Amino acid sequence: MAVSRAIRQVFLAIEQSEGAGARVRRSIGTAKLRNFTPFLMLDHFTIGKGAGFPDHPHRGQETITYLLSGGVDHEDFAGNKGTIGPGDLQFMTAGRGIMHAEMPHENLDGSPNVGMQLWVDLPRELKFCEPRYRDLRANEIPIAEVDDGRVTVKVISGQSHGIDSVRDLAYTPVWFLDITIRPGGRIKQTLPIGWNAFAYTLEGSTRFWSDDVSKNVEQFNNVVFQQDGDYVEASIPDNAEKPSRFILVAGQPLDQKVVQYGPFVMNSQEEVYQAMVDYQSAKNGFEKARGWESEIGKRMAA
């Protein structure tokens, strides 16, 4: 018999400064929830004019950037450039080394650029793989309609109610679903057995269920589920004033030590130290970092 996942903890993501002038609500990667394997960090970011994430390195992890509104430009030291818009995603595998910049658009109406960035650990054997990028456009994402249309699921990665995602976009197996529940709607979303899972509430108020026990969660909270169980259940009442929206993410745990120093995520202190040396001396994957400056990063000085 299928069993629902109980809630392990719920906590509010407090807004803080990050990068150059950006504001983020960080929930994974804080004292409340650190190294929730395979997840390293989750930021709900807001970046406007004059803000952003100028030139910086990475090694040993993947990032999933999901833009909710506005636009973000990307540029790296290997000559890769791109832009994602509302509803688009970029999956970046840093592997052995990447240096890049992520900078917001200046929107005509002055509105900020808002999105989610999730850091996912790489398995030990892939820490030194070649960097890669994979974009997923909003119009490519399949949609599952649940509960007579009262629930909509954007199947970014994984499966929901008979709908499969377009492709796997990360090396570490991850399911990533964007779920909207309208008044009176209810969903039971199956997740892979034994994977770690969480929900981050973006809009409205969502009621999460485990058996006959429920908990009402407001926006900007991270809901961490127990590893045991087959599915997550959520609903909102008939008289709800507005829909609720949350991302539901599950990932396959990695049985390995995590040692993180800023943008470098490795399995030992020695490997982190080596990453710093490699970056500073432009070798072992960081050869193109020497003297490189992104064009988009120069906006910060303009």
Automatic annotation (TrEMBL):
Quick one: which residues bind Fe cation? H56, H58, H100, E102
Please tell me whether the keyword Iron is annotated for this protein: yes
What are the entry keywords? Iron, Metal-binding
Q: How is the cofactor bound?
A: Binds 1 Fe cation per subunit.
Q: Please list the residue ranges annotated as the Pirin N-terminal domain.
A: 22-120
One of the entry's Gene Ontology molecular-function terms is: metal ion binding
Q: Does the keyword Iron-sulfur apply?
A: no
Q: Where is the Pirin C-terminal domain?
A: 177-285
Q: Which InterPro entries match?
A: Pirin, Pirin_C_dom, Pirin_N_dom, RmlC-like_jellyroll, RmlC_Cupin_sf
This protein's cofactor list reads: Fe cation
Identify the CDD domains for this entry.
cupin_pirin_C, cupin_pirin_N
**Pfam families, from UniProt?**
Pirin (PF02678), Pirin_C (PF05726)
The entry's family comment says:
Belongs to the pirin family.
**What's the protein here called?**
Pirin
